[in-house]
Amino acid sequence: MARDKRAKNPTLNDVAQSAGVSLATAARVLRKSNYPVDETLKNKVEAAAKLLGYVPNMVARRLRGGKQGVVGLIVGDMMDAHYGIIAEAVTERAESAHGNFAIVCNMQRDPLLEIKYLHRLLEYRVDGIILAGGGFDQWTHHQALTEAIEELKRTGTAVASLMPRGLEVPVFSADNEAIGITIAKFIVENGHSKIGILLGPARNEMTKLRMQAMTSHLSGCAVDYAIANIDSTAEAGAIGAAEMLARNPDFSALICGSDAIAFGAANYLRAEGIDIPGRISVMGLGNTRLATLCSPRLTTVEMNFAQAGNAALDFILSQDPASMQSPGEIIPHSLVIGDSFARIETPAALRPELAEPSRLTD
Predict the structure, then answer these.
(1) Alpha-carbon distance 343 to 283, whole Å?
(2) Rounded mean pLDDT, 199-221
(3) How far apart are CA 317 and CA 157, in angstroms?
(4) 60 pLDDT band (50/70/90 cuts)?
(5) How far apart are CA 230 and CA 195, in angstroms?
(6) More confident: 8 or 2
(7) Which residue in 198, 207, 259, 354 could disulfide with 286, CB within 3.0 to 4.6 Å?
């Protein structure tokens, strides 16, 4: 019986015996050690491993103090294009640049599922975890999330985040306040003085930072705005655009907290026969594939999601990330000018309807 079990699950010792070498030599070959091994012996070990069907026990290796070559990636919603960009970048780089692979977990916009995945990945003894989700409710279960992160750090598991979340982990993200100001300046420079803003969920640190910076700048430039917090989906974008238009029919630009929201909003406006950008300009955020699929092509903000994911991965797979005190990295952003946003040529100060500006309905 024991023999059958061994045949199904050959060990490193089985490989060594079959190749006629010491256990140390077999280990050096199969773990790709830098220690020099005679080419003939190396070939014997590799042939024996192939014949027996030997597969390294990666969990056992991690328990002995080695690395598994596996990183965990938790994304917010696989149906959202920007998470797809991150997943593709991280999985490709893990293989091509590090010879590792990534386990991708979809938290499905559920903060409790995110915490559950953290514990699961800890059980699998991954080398590190990238938090790319949490773009939804970041506050309700924050204490439980903090405790899970601390447990991971105590085991030496490196953790990095792709957005600010009030956690003591390195953050690899664009400057969200700077993004808010970039958008606000673009609005003002293009002459828009009455705008609608469709942002993602309110209980989100990233959304809050962008909103505060953007609205502060707009208020100082006599721009009136109405804000609605909605889900970051195309469906929510369509509903949000309809409600915004019903409450404030004279706004000239719609600023959206994601390309998905903007995509849904633009589809709704076109279906209603509203010209984009002739009547209403639309702006997205993220420069995802949805920006190119939208008609007209979205004006948006390049967030460099792939660069952020790769930077976090490189940090986690560095020699000793658990001992490194790193704040992370600020990822650059830039405007991407499409066809969905138009300039209002008449200066706002000369437009008679704005002689006595008033706040739009919130």
Answers:
(1) 12
(2) 92
(3) 11
(4) low
(5) 16
(6) 8
(7) 259
Supply the pLDDT for residue 358: 38
The confidence score (pLDDT) of residue 174 equals 96
Q: Report which of 146, 176, 173, 107 is spatially closest to residue 311, judged by C-alpha positions.
A: 173
Distance CA 79, CA 288 (A): 12
User: Among 240, 247, 281, which residue's Cα sits nearest to residue 261?
Assistant: 240
Three-state secondary structure along the chain? Answer: CHHHHHHHCCCHHHHHHHHCCCHHHHHHHHCCCCCCCCHHHHHHHHHHHHHHCCCCCHHHHHHCCCCCCEEEEEECCCCCHHHHHHHHHHHHHHHHHHCCEEEEEECCCCHHHHHHHHHHHHHCCCCEEEEECCCCCCCCCHHHHHHHHHHHHHCCCEEEECCCCCCCCCEEEECHHHHHHHHHHHHHHCCCCEEEEEECCCCCHHHHHHHHHHHHHHHCCCCEEEEEECCCCHHHHHHHHHHHHHHCCCCCEEEECCHHHHHHHHHHHHHCCCCCCCCCEEECCECCHHHHHCCCCCEEEECCHHHHHHHHHHHHCCCCHHHCCCCEEEECCEEECCCCCCCCCCCHHHCHHHCCCCCCCC
On the CB side of 182, how many CA atoms lie within 13 Å of its CA?
22
